[in-house]
Amino acid sequence: ETLVLATHNPGKVREIGELLAPYGMSVVSAGELGLPEPEETGTTFVANAELKALAAATASGKPALADDSGFCVAALDGDPGIYSARWAGPSKDFSVAMELVHRKMAESGSDDDRAWFTCALTLAWPDGHCESVEGFVHGTAVWPPRGDKGFGYDPMFVPDGDTKTFGEGDADWKHSVSHRADAFAQLVARCFDGGPA
Ligand code: ITT
Asked: Which residues participate in Mg(2+) binding (predicted)?
């Protein structure tokens, strides 16, 4: 059966496609189906992932997988967090968003450089049932940004235990540690391996 990827973010479509590849499922993106983008009115990653997945499952009549994720900085009390996409402004230019994170970190006066990514994944069915998980990767925020792989805030994040930013490493390496891969593994354990799918 076809799974709808309830995201309009090309970076997420690519990464979730790579994570799903071993499961031999056919996928179609919300963009390809022309599904509307619901307003993200939730106050948590999970709430936003659920509303996106349920909207896509209901509109398409097929199971849908949504990802709500973000970059969280300790010195900024977890911001940009659920507002990570919006910090880039209407141009969706993440060099602008990274500059803003860097400037606010400097203004905070804190020398705490810890940061993490969070990824909530929700799998929803047209009957309104859904399953949600949340994954994390902890590390540090670095400046200046390095590398042009990945997307979003990847060039300014170094995961704990490594020296490369997510912008400098290849996809396999990112999937070996990332928040999205962590969440995906939990979803697989719950829903694809004999769970209540
Ligand atoms: P959809 O709602 O259509 O899925 P979006 O980009 O608006 O796309 P979010 O509201 O979840 O999605 O925003 C998450 C933002 O957090 C995203 O735009 C990235 O900038 C950032 N982000 C999430 N995962 C990331 C990753 O693996 N690497 C770098 N940045 C990431």
From this structure: 39, 68
H or E element that contains 21: none
In 3D space, the residue among 84, 189, 94 whose CA is nearest the CA of residue 135 turns out to be 189
The rounded distance, in Å, linking the Cα atoms of 98 and 162 is 20
Domain boundaries, position 99: 2-192
- Please say whether the beta carbons of 7 and 121 come within 8 A: no
Q: What is the ipTM of this complex?
A: 0.98
Predicted structure pTM score: 0.95
Q: How many residues does the chain have?
A: 197
Say how many domains are in the chain: 1
CB of 118 closer than 8 Å to CB of 70: yes
Active site (annotated) includes residue 77: no
CATH at residue 47: 3.90.950.10
Atom 18, ligand 1: which residue's CA is nearest?
85
